[in-house]
What we know:
Helices cover 41% and strands 14% of the residues. The strands form three sheets. It has an eight-stranded parallel beta barrel, surrounded by five helices. A three-stranded mixed sheet has the order 6-8-9, with helices on one face. A two-stranded antiparallel sheet has the order 12-13. By secondary structure, it is of the alpha/beta class. The chain has a single domain (13-440), classed as Glycosidases (TIM Barrel). The relative contact order is 0.14. The two termini are 14 Å apart. The model is unreliable at 1-7 (pLDDT under 50). The site of D-gluconic acid has 12 residues, from loops.
Amino acid sequence: xxxxxxxxxxxxxxxxxxxxxxxxxxxxxxxxxxxxxxxxxxxxxxxxxxxxxxxxxxxxxxxxxxxxxxxxxxxxxxxxxxxxxxxxxxxxxxxxxxxxxxxxxxxxxxxxxxxxxxxxxxxxxxxxxxxxxxxxxxxxxxxxxxxxxxxxxxxxxxxxxxxxxxxxxxxxxxxxxxxxxxxxxxxxxxxxxxxxxxxxxxxxxxxxxxxxxxxxxxxxxxxxxxxxxxxxxxxxxxxxxxxxxxxxxxxxxxxxxxxxxxxxxxxxxxxxxxxxxxxxxxxxxxxxxxxxxxxxxxxxxxxxxxxxxxxxxxxxxxxxxxxxxxxxxxxxxxxxxxxxxxxxxxxxxxxxxxxxxxxxxxxxxxxxxxxxxxxxxxxxxxxxxxxxxxxxxxxxxxxxxxxxxxxxxxxxxxxxxxxxxxxxxxxxxxxxxxxxxxxxxxx
Length: 443
Ligand code: GCO
């Protein structure tokens, strides 16, 4: 590993003044307090309590107990020097049945969180939906039901009204792709369905919910900006053959364009739509006018980047780069440069924020592999900025170890170690390294 800093201590790669050094988390993964202060259940509470769904039978009932440790965690962020913090709001903590009467105690938690960040000079970046659909709405069909888009926009409006004076950056959805591919196709995330056709309908309703929430935002006095957080993966042919190139284009449609195009160009990509059979339920789900709602102007785009995708001429995926403990991850920092410059080229010059980037490692404290990962990705991000990309901020995933969905507590993604028996937080090597990066404004 080559030295991180030059001998004088100045960074080799200096970031623009005011760059938003940040970290990300999500509600169900850290909060715990699942049954307290009036919070209603989400699909993840139900799913994680079903035998055999999550490794070692783990749940998010307690998680990192962040709900009870708010002040300590805010101080931890301040001590790292964070300038930006991306968190999500648990919809059923604010609206226990997804709609109707607001749970004042739930809302108050997020209000205290936003205030606590601002007091410490940290900008709140709020995600409205990080997969925890209220169970009461799931019983009405959840995102399979077109009305869910409207329920989501109403909830979003509640949050804009409550926190709009304090939150500069809003993200509607986190990774709709994962809901579609993992929650509704593979079935290994909540709600655990395996129905590709239904999954695409869910995907459409998620996009519609995004568009309606953006509309609701424009109607409020909030002075902030709004967009979505997409998980994107540049796709490449695994070899030079024409067949592999064709498959890479198809994979790109599935991984990236089917989300980017509707949001930023106001239409599904024609080649992707052509893969949907004439009688696919998705076709009936798309109503006149939806494209315009979904494609309403966004102020920024959140990019979750974990790695690249390589496909062969038969369309199967191969890994040409190292992976991590999370074996779906193909670690390739250069892909981040390709992705950021590609977004600018194909979708215009909108401000970008990296909303997630990180790796799981089995090294509990001396996580030099994570330091190398983060440094290499920041170098790629820096190169993209040099190439003219309007990248404003970077949120590593994750601030602290947490409930990693179906993997439970067996994968650690944090720069801060959490002892889940005592809830003690301890800096890993990567946390101390990141603190220096922030202080020097560069790597
Ligand atoms: C996601 C989620 C995070 C995960 C992270 C690691 O993007 O999948 O936003 O909740 O924990 O990506 O898998």
